[in-house]
Amino acid sequence: MIDEPDPRKVHAVPVPRVGGVGIVVGALVPIMIWLPIDTVLAWYLFGSVILLAFGIWDDIKELGHYVKFIGQFIAVLSIVYLGDVYVSHLPFMGLDTVSSSVGKPFTVMALIGMINAINHSDGLDGLAGGESLMSLTGIGYLAYLADGMSMVVIVVAVIGGVFGFLRYNSHPAHIFMGDGGSQFLGFTLGVLAVLLTQDVNPALSPAAPLLLLGLPIIDILSVFAQRIYRGMNWFRATKNHIHHRLLELGFHHYESVVIIYSIQALFVLCGVILCYESDSLLVGIYLGVCGLVFTLLILAEQRNWQAHRGQMNIPLVDFIRSVGRNPWFRTWPLLVIEACIALYLVVGSALITEVPQDFGMIAALLAVLLLLRLILGYRVWFLYLRLLMYVTIAFIVYLVNTNQPEYLAGPDIYTYLFFGVLIVAMVLAVRFVNNQLFRLTPLDYLVVMMVLVISLLPGLELQESGVVAMVVKLVILFYASELVIKHMKNRWNVMTVSGLVALVVIALRGISRI
Question: Which residues of the chain have pLDDT under 70?
């Protein structure tokens, strides 16, 4: 199951395409554990397994399009005709419904189209997974507001499978999802969009899925239109997708992915915010954004515009470059980051107002494991230092946020000042310190964007519970610790020792209560 390079692909070395197996298994197993298997879920699971099987077969043997269509039709016909999942409310029809003789064939074609839309968008590292992740988040949020908790479970399970995959699919990718993964994601998104608007919350605009599913739809339609216009085979692979055209304009791989992520995020956000608005408004927004995107692409192509063509002499940019050549700026940001992490861990462990006994025992175990790792080094290969530090930081952040003094409860100037200094140091470190050891990826952009957006969405009751503040702090501290670990020359350093000290303090305070 190896994806070999060829002229229509952008990777230059063979890459295994087994990620789809991890995505599907990682999603379906929790779904089967947590949800009762009713008729709809049974045929969804059946369709998913069929698509995975045909996808694996294609990833091994390079099947033709018509053979893949057999698997797609088996999966889609099963969920539509046996699972009775189909579209009965179409845009611009108001409260009128269409008969099953019209709605079911329409749903079959729509689901087949969505499967192939995600399959065809899987052309750059992290692209199909990231687009699907944003669509899943929007669908899951709307399902949560409508008390569709079974759908929320499915969404969260699939998000888990995608996140685990994206960790190894960001550029340069170590693994591809292959047809097994992309077909499953397209099938899942299509089915969930139908269930959301037709069953879970029929009050939503029937045009909402257009925005929730976003860019892959118009991308594949534009590709088919170009192939028809040029008299080409509809199903013959070409390099005229949006991501191919961005690369041709000179954008770097990661820049092309981030641009598409941003467009997809705009679509999904509009679909969530405007989900109850008129069909004409939603369709108009979708067509307007799509028209703007393709107009800019066509104008850039016609004028032979190229990104990164030469360097502009901008005084501020020149000043930043000159500052970056100063050796002082190549060392002190990391020192500040180490000091900030150490200060948070040690002071935080001392400020915790109450340490439960069970948390004290857990802290003692973590302290022992971390001490073993620091003393024995790689001889205890199964104790990853990064994992131990991440768990330690998460452990202390949770305790600090749930058991903190009253004068630190809620937003305070000290917290803002501390994390402000830390963020500035991180930005300077990423910009001026050896960036070969630490590189931001589109996945980082995706994570930060989703954290910020989710924190602002109403109805999740996250702001009041302090979950948002805790997650934001975790994201900042995780990236800060990753910077330190990447540039770490000795496992005994300010960050690791402070983590050990903090754990010992928490362990002693918790165990003393026994």
Answer: 6-12, 233-238, 310-330, 407-412, 434-440, 456, 459-466, 513-514
Q: Give the separation between CA 161 and CA 213, rounded to whole angstroms.
A: 19
SS3 assignment, position 331: coil
Distant-in-sequence contacts of 402-409, Cβ < 8 A, 24+ apart: 402/466, 403/352, 403/353, 403/354, 403/355, 404/351, 404/352, 404/353, 405/351, 405/353, 408/351
Write out the H or E segment, with its range, that includes residue 151. helix 149-166
Q: What single string gives the DSSP state of each residue in 155-213?
A: HHHHHHHHHHHHTTTSSSPS---HHHHHHHHHHHHHHHHHHIIIII-TTS-TTHHHHHH
What type of residue sits at position 500? L
Taking only the tens place, the pLDDT of each residue in 444-470 is 888 878 877 777 677 666 555 567 778
Mean pLDDT of the chain: 86
Distance, CA of 48 to CA of 276 (rounded, Å) = 30
Cα-based distances in Å from 85 to 48, 95, 117, 191: 15, 19, 20, 8
Q: Which residues contact 16 (CB under 8 A, 6 or more apart)?
A: 1, 2, 3, 175, 176
Query: What is the amino acid identity at position 368?
Result: V
Write down how long the chain is. 514
> How many whole angstroms separate alpha carbon 178 and alpha carbon 184?
10
Helix (H, G, I), strand (E, B) or coil at 203: coil
Q: What letter would DSSP give residue 173?
A: P
Cβ neighbour number for residue 512 with a 10 Å cutoff: 10
8 Å CB contact between 447 and 501: no
Q: What six digits make up the tokens of 407?
A: 């004068």
Contacts 24+ apart (CB under 8 A), 323-327: 323/432, 324/431, 324/432
- pLDDT tens-digit readout, 201-210: 999 999 999 9
User: In the block, which residue shows the tokens 């857990």?
Assistant: 362
Output the pLDDT for position 316. Answer: 46
CB 104, CB 82: distance < 8 Å: no
Structure confidence by residue, pLDDT tens digits, 407-457: 666 666 778 889 889 988 888 887 777 665 566 678 888 887 887 777 767
State how far the alpha carbon of 187 is from the alpha carbons of 180, 208, 410, 412, 460, in Å.
11, 17, 43, 46, 27
CB-based contacts of 52, cutoff 8 Å, min separation 6: 20, 21, 24, 180, 183, 184
Q: What are the CA-CA distances from residue 384 to residues 170, 195, 379 (Å)? A: 22, 42, 11
pLDDT in tens, 276-320: 999 999 999 999 999 999 999 999 989 888 887 755 555 544 555
